[in-house]
Amino acid sequence: MTREDARALLFEMTKGDSLRRHARTVELVMEAYATKLGEDADEWAIAGLLHDADYEAWPSEHPNRIVALLSERGLPKIAHAISAHYTHWGVPYDTLLDKGLIACDEITGFIVACCQVRPDGIESLEVKSVMKKLKQKSFAATVDREEVNKGMELFGVTPEEHIAFIIEVLKQNRDELKV
After folding, report:
1. What residue spans define the domains of the chain?
2. Which intervals hold domain HD (predicted)?
């Protein structure tokens, strides 16, 4: 599956701009990490792009629909990473791809939320501001802070380095993402 195929699949399954943007932000962060770590950038990007593709249309079946579809298309590594991208589902997360997706999903969405409440968006966003917002339970209350921390732990990154990395990726893509 090419990235163009993955994008077409996302747009077929997901109609809302917000979830499409989340998928794109996670795609970009995953691609950047794959490049940094010497992993398959397309594989990591596609996992990021499609991780929530079935959520809007079939929330009670998420992520089973997209996992089944990717398995049928011969993409078992991506399918498994998506099936394991929330630690409470009880699916083992053994590969770096699995751990990377867990580490990047919730926190990337959280950082975008931080940008949305700032007058200049991501321009002056600092790690310490994100860390402070993480401690505010009322801010982006649906973000599972336990999952954010578990993801970073599994991926072997500190909160400071991980948040800084994501901020930099989002800054590089600020015009497209409108953050």
Report:
1. 3-177
2. 21-90
CA 110 → CA 22, 86, 130, 133, 136, distances in Å? Answer: 10, 15, 8, 9, 12
Note if the bond before 63 is cis, omega within 30 degrees: yes
Say if pTM beats, i.e. exceeds, 0.85: yes
**Residue given tokens 């993409």 in the structure block:** 75
Q: How far is CA 105 from CA 14, 25, 99, 119, 120, in A?
A: 17, 9, 10, 24, 23
- pLDDT tens digits for the chain (179 residues)? 999 999 999 999 999 999 999 999 999 999 999 999 999 999 999 999 999 999 999 999 999 999 999 999 999 999 999 999 999 999 999 999 999 999 999 999 999 999 999 999 999 999 999 999 999 999 999 999 999 999 999 999 999 999 999 999 999 999 999 99
Contact 106, 48 (CB under 8 A): no
Rounded to the nearest 10°, the torsion over CA 145, 146, 147, 153 is 110
CATH topology of domain 3-177: Hypothetical protein af1432 (1.10.3210)
Distance CA 87, CA 23 (A): 19
Q: Which of 89, 135, 83, 93 is nearest to 114 (CA)?
A: 135
